[in-house]
Protein 1
Amino acid sequence: MDLNEASALGVFSCELCEMSSPYSFYGQKPPNTRAIVLLEECYGMKDPFSPEREKFLVLGSKCCLCSKTVCVGTDCSLFYTKRFCLPCVRDHLHQFPEQIQNELLRKKSVQKTSSA
Ligand SMILES: [Zn+2]
Ligand SMILES: [Zn+2]
């Protein structure tokens, strides 16, 4: 069963981390789904771990500010009405709601031990 390989459009790779994976669709509407419309244009693939046709994974998307391709991992990007890569979020942090600022600050303190 090599469905994923057969239908892959290319390989998605994140510009911030090493994550890369074949993707089978790009856009707001995953194929073989009826009611699902995503909030953003994104790279995705059918969920290889699910037998259901309508299950899919979102791999990543483009940052709306710098157009970098970033994965949806919380270390690389966040979604707040649009997709932002974390470097852009940090640059514009004061424009984000307090909840997101707090989340990032918490993240920073977690990473401190390795990067400081
Ligand atoms: Zn990433
Ligand atoms: Zn960006």
Note: Helices lie at 3-7, 86-91, 98-115.
Protein 2
Amino acid sequence: MIPKDLYYKECKNPDDAIEWGMQNISPEIRRRFQNAERIGDSQSMADFSYRIEPFVGDGWLCIGDAHRFLDPIFSYGVSFAMKEGIRAADAIKQAIDGNDWKTPFYAYRDWSNGGQQIAADLIRYFWIYPIFFGYQMQNPDLRDEVIRLLGGCCFDCEGWKAPTIFRNAIEEYDRKQMAG
Ligand SMILES: Cc1cc2nc3c(=O)[nH]c(=O)nc-3n(C[C@H](O)[C@H](O)[C@H](O)COP(=O)(O)OP(=O)(O)OC[C@H]3O[C@@H](n4cnc5c(N)ncnc54)[C@H](O)[C@@H]3O)c2cc1C
């Protein structure tokens, strides 16, 4: 996985990208691949993240990959699927007990969107500012929060500083991009 700008600057095609990555990102992989035989052309994917909207409705809701997929590198998939599954089970029970799907399902939707957004912000911040992300990890005020966020604690982190820092930095970045 390499940033788009870097791809266009350093590589003419996906084969180049693999060569460049082995040379500059992971020489160890180059060593392991030295006797490997290429059996096909390399292929690139611009974006594999997706989300389903709406993901709750009358008598149904989506969890895990059926709802949203963020990023394979950060490995949130199993953790988020389980967290959403647990929360969805509660919402379903409340819907049956209260004979009303909207209140519990919309609460599940909002809770899920909140946590997924915090994870999406962290991932985007990392790819925009990889060096600064490493620097933030040295900050004792943020280190523990960032470790927990990387571990999947994105849904119940009210009052944490790191998510706000990431969100503000992304909004500022987007503003600058829009301005030219
Ligand atoms: C190559 C690869 C590596 C990954 N590595 C990681 C990792 O290291 N860490 C991590 O957290 N995540 C990883 N993920 C992502 C993770 O596997 C998914 O995010 C996670 O499994 C999603 O769980 P899920 O329950 O939503 O979906 P799934 O695990 O896909 O479960 C859906 C299940 O529904 C079944 N099913 C589908 N249609 C029907 C039907 N009509 N009737 C009955 N059953 C049906 C399927 O057979 C499947 O068993 C990886 C994914 C891939 C593809």
Note: Helices lie at 4-10, 14-24, 27-32, 77-98, 102-128, 130-138, 140-150, 161-179.
